[in-house]
Amino acid sequence: MIDIVALRTLVALDALGSVTATADSLGYTPAAVSHQLQKLSRYLGAPVTERTGRGISLTPMGRELSSRGAQILHDLEGIESEARARSGDPRGRITVGGFSTGIRGLLVPALPRLRAAAPELTVTNVESDPDELVEMVSAGRIDAALIFDWNSSVLRLPSTLTSEVIAVDRADIVMHRDHHLADRAEVTRSDLVGEVFVSAPRGAVCHRWLVALFEDLASEPRVEYWAVEYDTQVEFSRSVGALALVPRLGRPHLPADVTAVPLDDPSIARSIHVVWRRSMTNSPAIAVLRKEMQAIAGEFEVSAG
């Protein structure tokens, strides 16, 4: 019978394209990945990979086995989830992906609750951008992920994945308390035309969202400073008076001389989703993860409202 570990290695190699990436994904060494592939080739009596320049690629047999093997692994995961669901006890190990503020604002506060509710469950995490996280869940490299989309745009997922919205995260305009807009109860988008901003890098999701605020105003944000992390953007607001569009979830503590002024449009928000493979829907581990993060999200929405 084909070894499941070897099959999982082949499927991961097909998805990731290199031995190094496959090793990182599975927690193996590159030598261990090569060993599993060689073992599979010996068992089948024909190679499943071949040399292509400095790397390797799948042979026609390898591609066929990977395609069918991915479905087999999906089915096995579903069987395991259903079996664990009968016991009702979350146990084992799951890896949860997320974007920076989602991890800080939802996953981290949920961990003590998870430890209390499911002491035999170990939760680890990775951090990445939403698009990459969806690929990681789909490929089986992680078990679930927190992702977001702006302004309730349609969330496009592979058919093997499912999701639910667990929070709606509004954003405010962070600014120095000496700024001429700082004493407003709310600001409008037209108030922001011509103001100096600090923004995430061009092409980043949050930068695209900032640009979108100005689209129907026939204008663009006046970005003079750039920073990936929101805490750095807040420091720009404190030090040089730049405005920053900062979501509430996971927002760093604001210094005394910085304030956050709400936008007058509540639709300017991002939806926070938890995503998992359909084959794990019955998993007690996924169920308790969703339950505890939903509890945290409910507290966040009350406190941020």
Task: List the topology elements.
Elements: H1 4-16, H2 19-26, H3 30-44, E1 49-52, E2 55-58, H4 60-87, E3 92-98, H5 100-117, E4 121-127, H6 130-138, E5 144-150, E6 161-176, E7 196-199, H7 205-212, E8 222-226, H8 230-240, E9 244-247, E10 258-262, E11 269-277, H9 284-304
Parallel strand pairs: 3-4, 3-5, 7-8
Antiparallel strand pairs: 1-2, 5-11, 6-9, 6-10, 6-11
Helix pairs in contact: 1-2, 1-3, 1-4, 2-3, 5-9
Key features of this structure:
single chain, 305 residues, alpha/beta, seven-stranded mixed sheet, two-stranded antiparallel sheet, 9 helices, WH-like_DNA-bd_sf
Describe, in short, the structure shown.
It contains nine helices and eleven strands.
Q: Count of helices? A: 9
Q: Pairing-aware structural class of the strands and helices?
A: alpha/beta
Radius of gyration: 23 Å
Shape: elongated
Helix proportion range: 40-55%
Largest sheet: 7 strands, mixed
**What are the segments in which pLDDT stays under 50 over at least 5 consecutive residues?**
none
Number of strands: 11
- Reading the helices and strands in chain order gives HHHEEHEHEHEEEHEHEEEH
Terminal residue distance: 57 Å
The fraction of residues in strands falls at 15-25%
Mean pLDDT: 87
What does this structure look like?
The N and C termini lie far apart (57 Å). The radius of gyration is 23 Å and the shape is elongated. Strands 3, 4, 5, 6, 9, 10 and 11 form a seven-stranded mixed sheet that branches. It has a two-stranded antiparallel sheet with strand order 1-2. With 305 residues, the protein is α/β, with parallel strands linked by helices. Helix 1 (4-16) crosses helix 2 and helix 1 packs across helix 4 (60-87). The chain has helices spanning 4-16, 19-26, 30-44, 60-87, 100-117, 130-138, 205-212, 230-240, 284-304; strands spanning 49-52, 55-58, 92-98, 121-127, 144-150, 161-176, 196-199, 222-226, 244-247, 258-262, 269-277. The model has no long low-confidence stretch (mean pLDDT 87).
